[in-house]
Amino acid sequence: MKWSVQQVQSLQEKGLQLDELVDFSELKKLDSEIREITPVRVKGDGSVTRNSVTFQLEIAGSMTLPCARTLNDVEYPFTMNATEVFQLNDWATFDEDEEVHQLKDNMIDLVPFVQERILLEKPLRVFSDKEEGPAPKSGSGWELTTMDDKGQEKVKVDPRLKELEKFFDKK
């Protein structure tokens, strides 16, 4: 997924078709929460003009993340669409709000931009269907609590204080 400016300009008439499986296992080093990532399919096309190359991409794969509650492995499939624009010459002008990438050494390299998209797609937390896992449910001075339907914490009432509850009943 790397081309020189000359290669891209020679494809100006035909356009650029892309359908590759790319290994992004180095993302595990960049983000310690990513336990595993399958080869990612990058599919799309690039349209070449005199001033720029615009890639319309579909990025699909799957990553394994830890459950926020139990630390079990959770498979998280992802599919996203992305548009990446690269400026081919220095005198071209673009809108201020348009994100246009500059070339390094007259090369177009999609890999860092696809990596960035994958990292942005990663959710803050995922949950496993399994109740048990490597993470404990309680510890010294803390305990895992649950919420009721109204989003309020379910409170366990001390049985010795159960009788006082009737004074607060609203009828």
UniProtKB/TrEMBL annotation:
Superkingdom of the organism of origin: Bacteria
Annotated Pfam families: YceD
Region feature (Disordered): 129-154
Name by which UniProt lists this protein: DUF177 domain-containing protein
